[in-house]
Design goal:
The complex is a heterodimer of chains A (68) and B (410).
Chain A (H helix, E strand, L loop, with lengths): L1 E4 L2 E4 L6 H7 L8 E5 L2 E3 L14 E6 L6
Parallel strand pairs in A: 1-5
Antiparallel strand pairs in A: 1-2, 3-4, 3-5
Chain B lengths: L3 H7 L26 H8 L14 H14 L3 E5 L2 H12 L5 E4 L5 H11 L5 E4 L5 H7 L4 E7 L11 H11 L3 E4 L4 H4 L9 E5 L13 E5 L12 H7 L3 H14 L5 H33 L6 E3 L9 H7 L7 E5 L3 H10 L4 E2 L9 E3 L11 H6 L6 E5 L5 H12 L3
Helix pairs in contact in B: 1-11, 3-11, 4-10, 6-7, 13-15
Classes of the chains: A mainly beta (68), B alpha/beta (410).
Chain lengths: 68, 410
């Protein structure tokens, strides 16, 4: 499936969840990132149980410095 | 890694250095290059982990912030140019005109001045409570209260509040508890474990390693749901627990410009490595000097929470792992006698600062609190007879010799 991640097209296996996307995108220190799917904030505890669908817009937000 | 000093020395490096330097280098630069227009756009939008401008973030400062995060157990840390910058930035992030904060009359003189003289004209109401009386604190909190603020050991009164009791009240009322933990640091007091929501530190003091540099820190312990804070509620719904630090970094701190210098961040990271050793020595010296002063006939009263005779001893024991901090205050019979002691010391420095490696002595009423009326000073419990002694890490015998000869001049 195709997603928009931080404004860029990304291809990911169908049925993958948010944790898989974080791993695929090699997000440094995922604990320090706030994640939104289609503008909605996702709690860290819900990464595994957050499925992704074709066309979803995912944003990883960094607050540079001593976050998380 | 379990121990504080081990973590401070070997704590996980956030990012490896390009040359394997064992210390994070000082990135004394303002700006950082990006490989494309898109890359800099993403960096500005917070969608790419990259530094852009040192007023907002910098690798050396980030390294210090990460060390503080590891050592405090907090969720997120922001380093600033001073402790006062930390307090003012935080209050401006949580409060607005028409709201109030609840605090104590027993505060650092400049903090009182910030609230009373700098922020009141912008419409902030300041309510004063006895922090050792949680019921009184509870009675002052209403729907417009945005935070409760106190110091861990008040200076120079040396008062200690029951932090868990205050936390229970503020959380029940949905208001964050903000603590200035400068004089304890996470070595003596892990504020997160006592229910403190945000800890502020003047890293100028113990952390800087001997008054090497001015700095401040805001630690979000991750205890508070920022959806309950009216100014942050919308942001908290969109970005979660990072709402407060993100608002600081991307708005208040960025706009006010109170950034820490990279060189100071380096010095303060270095100071963290010996923090545990220095605090232990300073506290041991302070207890011994407090006991010495208590036994001196010319001294009217000694305030030190580590003394068995202090009304705050039990709380100090339970909250600070058996230590009482590195500051002692004591009263002489008169202002003149207090001045004689201050003039009589030789080794101990007549200077204003606390938690330096050097011991320092000062007359608070005529210096730190000089802008307040005699009535206000009495209300703040800063009498003319009071002396503040910040105890360093010198050899105890030399400090006792110095105070002995100063007492002989009275």
């Amino acid at each position: 499936m195709e997603l928009m991640v931080n404004g860029e097209k990304v291809t990911l296996e169908g049925g993958a969840n948010l944790s898989a996307l974080l791993a695929q995108q090699k997000v440094e220190n995922p604990a320090m990132v706030s994640v939104q799917i289609n503008g909605e904030f996702v709690e860290k505890e819900q990464y595994e149980s957050s499925p992704l669908a074709e066309g979803d817009e995912v944003d990883f937000l960094y607050f540079m410095g001593g976050g998380y | 890694m379990k121990g504080f000093s081990t973590k401070a020395i070997h704590g996980v490096r956030f990012k490896p250095d390009a040359h394997g330097s064992l210390r994070m280098p000082i990135y004394d630069t303002v700006s950082f290059e990006h490989e494309s227009a898109k890359a800099i756009e993403l960096a500005f939008g917070g969608k790419r982990p990259a530094h852009a401008y040192t007023r907002i973030s910098n690798p050396t400062i980030e390294d210090f912030e990460q060390k503080m995060r590891l050592l405090s157990g907090g969720m997120a840390v922001l380093a600033l140019s001073s402790g006062m910058a930390a307090i003012s930035n935080l209050v401006m992030t949580l409060c607005e005109a028409g709201t109030n904060l609840v605090t104590s009359r027993h505060l650092f003189g400049n903090t009182v001045s910030l609230f009373e003289h700098s922020l009141k004209p912008w419409g902030l109401e300041v309510r004063y409570a006895d922090m050792t009386n949680p019921a009184e604190v509870a009675s002052l909190i209403d729907e417009n209260t945005r935070l409760v603020f106190l110091e861990i050991i008040t200076n120079p009164q040396m008062e200690v509040a029951d932090i868990k009791a205050l936390s229970a009240i503020t959380h029940q009322k949905g208001v964050p508890l903000i603590l200035d933990g400068t004089v304890t640091t996470p070595v003596l007091f892990r504020s997160k474990d006592f229910g403190v929501d945000v800890e502020i530190l003047s890293s100028t003091k113990y952390i800087s390693g001997g008054a090497t540099s001015v700095g401040g820190v805001i630690i979000d312990n991750g205890n508070f749901d920022w959806k309950q804070a009216p100014r942050l509620a919308e942001k908290a719904k969109r970005i979660g627990p990072m709402a407060m630090i993100a608002t600081l970094r991307m708005e208040v701190y960025r706009n006010l410009g109170a950034c820490l210098a990279p060189h100071n961040a380096y010095l303060q990271s270095l100071g963290l490595e010996t923090l545990g050793l220095r605090i232990e020595r300073s506290c041991d010296n302070a207890l011994a000097l407090a006991q010495f002063l208590e036994s001196a006939p010319k001294v009217k009263k000694v305030n030190y929470p580590g003394l068995a005779t202090s009304p705050f001893n039990a709380l100090a024991q339970s909250q600070f792992g058996g230590y009482g901090g590195g500051i002692v205050s004591f009263e002489m019979e008169s202002r003149e006698a207090a001045f004689r002691i201050i003039d009589g010391v030789g080794l101990i420095k007549r200077a204003t600062n606390v938690n330096d490696n050097k011991s320092m002595i000062i007359h608070p009423a005529s210096t730190i609190f000089c802008e307040y009326s005699p009535e206000e000073k009495l209300e703040m419990q800063v009498p003319e007879e009071l002396i503040r002694l910040s105890v360093g890490i010198e050899d105890l015998e030399d400090l006792i010799d110095d105070l002995t000869q100063a007492l002989e001049t009275v």
